Protein: Alpha-L-fucosidase
Organism: Zosterops lateralis melanops
Amino acid sequence: MMVSILFSLSENISADMFCSVFCRWYWQKEKREPYVKFMDTNYPPGFSYEDFGPLFTAEFFDANQWADILKASGARYVVLTSKHHEGFTLWGSKYSWNWNAVDVGPKRDLVAELAASVRNRTDLHFGLYHSLFEWFNPLFREDATSAFKTRKFPTSKSLPELYEIVAKYQPEIIWSDGDGDAPDTYWNSTGFLAWLYNDSPVRDTVVTNDRWGTGTMCTHGGFYTCRDRYNPGHLLPRKWENCMTIDRHSWGYRRDAPLRDYLAIEDLVKELAETVSCGGNLLMNIGPTHDGRIAVVFEERLRQMGAWLEVNGEAIYGTKPWRAQNDTVTPGVWYTSSPKEGKVNVIFLNWPVSGILELGEPQAKIGETQVKLAGYKDLLKWVALGEKGMVIALPQLTPQQLPCQWGWTLQLTDVN
């Protein structure tokens, strides 16, 4: 099960309760270690990937608890993975007979449950991830064999599912993925999107990403994803998203993952600051368990991010990129702007031992510019460095007195 949370100007969460990279190699029956060895050791002979269906139980899945965790994370919208590349749908799709969460395993409509809890308990926008292709669907493989000159799979499976989830759940985000090396004409992406934006029940509220066929990524769409873990480090002319994982190596849940494989909250704050400064959103993926739990390490990261945003949220929510994205003098300093408030936000990731922070980009005005540390009441003293740059005296605080522990925000008013 994958859950993703998107932070920045807007925030997002997604969940796929079933598949990981393992499913591709096991279902494909390729001789890949350590998968073959693991299966031989732990499962009976002849055990197929389809046999995992009944083992996906989600008995501990509590949509209200999930919604509360998501709200506490500081997220602004959530995207549940309704179907990943193995084709198992988390709702009772009539186009995925006996390979969905209502017919097999949980015997529950997990999409409906989370949608209801998110809408009833939070102010998050609700969205759905949907994979266009399926690794081993015979109709898709037949179409691929014909170089996609036939269109049996999209017309009978993928497109009907998309229309179905829009009609049933009215998501505000459609996060498409998995083109299967097929062009957008094979998927009839323009036809679906024309309906979505002109005639669907969500036509006035929906947004979409850029994964609608080969050649569309980073070229078309309401926002760009470009590739997984995309973080260009510079400003882009179009809204974009950095989709990445808290587990450094997996989009799913790994029972054997050591603690060192999980990004620390310091790493995540750094990723968020870099991404938002360059005009992007951060999609922070977590992998819940087969029985429906958000593992404690993931919950901790989400709540830590929410605690950080409680103090520093003004540097994230509703902001725009500034004329400089990062500082030219001090590393680990990233800028955003709040035009309505007339502020420049300075997110610095390392508290200097000297207590003095030097910035090379702001052009301060003597007698006008004010400097405030988010979460601290008093104004800070500063000195201009010629026409450009300034030195700021940070308050002398013990670690317990700091407004937060993993990165801090200065708010500058009246700077050029």
Summary: The chain has ten helices and 15 strands. The chain has a mean pLDDT of 91.
